[in-house]
Amino acid sequence: MNLLIIQTAFIGDVVLATPLLQAAREQLGATYVAAVVRPDAGGLLHHHPAVDEIIPFDKKGSDRGLKGLIRLRGRLREKHFEAALIPHRSLRSALLARLARIPVRVGFDTSSGRWLLTHQVPYQAVHEVERNLSLLSPLTSAPLSFKPTLYPDDTDHTAADDLLKRHDIRPDEILFGISPGSAWATKRWLPDRFAEIAKRLTDEHTGRVVLFGGADDEALCRQIAEQSGVSPINAAGQLSLLQSAALASRCAVMISNDTGMAHIAAAMDTPVIALFGPTVASLGFTPYGDRHQIIEQSLSCRPCGTHGGPQCPIATHACMQEITVNIVMKTISTMIQTLNPEP
């Protein structure tokens, strides 16, 4: 079976779709699996054994509008896909599969384009990984159990090692990751608090801190580094996604907002402490697995949306303001003790 998966949402969503890719290959027995993703997320799937082809769809750039859909439609028709699994719930994603004349089109019953699907699967209140796997239910009744996975290669690990060498980091030195950015302003914890965490991790746990992010996060990470006073490594914008994944695998723990880096680190088996503000864990987008911890405050205004937003609707940002440095440090210390109990 030639099978297509369409997930053109954010980086974290693509990571959470990797179990679906694995299940399509291993459980369904698909002989050819392709993934339509945004160009900035495609690098995550390089070297993935369940993916035969990565098809970039620049829906906000060169592929924007009807012309972009028609152009990609022609490319997909040439592949003669027999089925499409569509975790992304937009009209555009469902329409793309329909225009490509893919005979079996499976998506969620909450999709804006559900009327274009041949099979609608209930959108359940479970983790996104399990929701995505449920899209296979019209095609197989076998139980499914897969976790997010990424596959940085030797070149990716070498790039991460080279960055550490430039900062005189020994191979046995303890690293702590911090990912302070987000595409949504309300999802970002306060920079001065991240700076204080960096200082206290360095002083109290004798490790080095690495600041993660894309090129857009470089200025934020530089600000945090300067405020911390302990010279953390600013890796923002210096590595590809898989190189960042390789670097995350070196960290004892990753402290992150509710953003893609949390899922990348979790996929590399790095314990994650995720700070949830405008979004809530019950939406199903937490780092997947039982090694991770979520910090969130119980407030009547939460959630104020499924993604966060550019500004707090009630102008308090209390969801993040009420997460203190002491709360986060206590969680970090407990996690470190749990992972490395003293003899």
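The above is record 1. Record 2 follows with the same two-line structure.
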Amino acid sequence: MAAMTRQEIRTEAIAGVTTFFTMAYILVVNPAILSTPGTGMSFSGVMTATVLLCFTMTLLMGLYAKLPFAVAPGMGINAFFTFSIVLGQKVPWPTALGIVFWAGVLFLIVSATPLREQVARAIPANLRTAAAVGIGIFLSFIGLKNAGVIAADPVTLVRLGELGRGAGLCALGGALIVWQLSRKSPLAFLSGITAVTGAAWGLGMIPAPSSWTAAPDFSSVFFKLDIVGALKPALAPAILSILMTDLFDSVSTFVGVSQATGLLDEKGEPKNLKQGLLVDAVATLTAGLFGTSSGTAYIESAAGIEVGGRTGLTSVFTALCFLPCFFLAPLAAAVPPYATAPVLILVGALMFRSAASLKLDRLEDALPAFLTIVLIPLTFSITQGMLWGFISHVVLYTLSGRRKEVSAMMWAIAAASAGLLALERLRL
């Protein structure tokens, strides 16, 4: 980087700022999800943890991995953390942070050994795609709930909501985001959140914040994880689920973005993949320490790469953009749920697009993918979808005479999945 020209540095700076604006929505959305009523987590504490994770891990991605990828808490995993682990399984949030920590430890071990490639290659592409589709539906479901478009019902479980002013503003915010996305604006998601929040303030639906800035909150969730409590056998499925989701998400992001933007080495492989995965693993581990759900490389990094970002300097500039955000918690806390709802819905829709690549011609391919997709939103658990997908894939391939196509590693994963389901039922 020392030999770069002034023009090259300027290009990297523009790329870094572009990446920041495409993903800045996470600074509001992530704390809003993790501080959902009932979790007991502080919005300001989680926002501080989110900013700290984004800054430190994006900086590490630039300085160590030398890649133009930004890192932040992953969408989907944050919903799983909140609605499946904390609210669904009634796991105290410090213990849930311990789960994230141990998933990061395992991810670090996997990323530093050949096991990483063996696991990644063993999982069929159809199941990886199905998991992404299921998580997309899961996110959209939460967004529709937050907007009041759907509501709980004692008879039918869910029903159409009241469609009040919050739902109307959500629709307008979604339309604005779609319009901006069609024009490739890096401010698309952020502008939608800002417009809906401003309209809500103007209509008197919510009060404006009493103050606009505050000191970072390092007292609420920072280093408050319960590492020992997270080692209960009944919580092993959650640790495995976060590990597998992080691994698939990271590999998919690095491979997909690198292929799409030409960020490849002389062998045609993604540049510095091992180093990038190691940073992702550290991001998950430190997320549990900081007080948020696991971190991962963001696919929005492609926006910065597209405008010329090619080195780790891009990530350094992105990281620096996060620093002022430490002091904006009161402003972010004033954002209502229906303002972030269109982001959840549209991110879910974007993830759902991968359904087009699913192979559904044969039952042994279609049924595991179907189970993975439907069980994630219907059980509010990424774990259930993935574990049942693994098991059904092995069983159906065996029954259909395709046993030889199942690798030894996949058999091991399916056996581990069955064991984890048994442990979960026992609630040891």
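Residues 16 and 314 are 4 Å apart (CA to CA).
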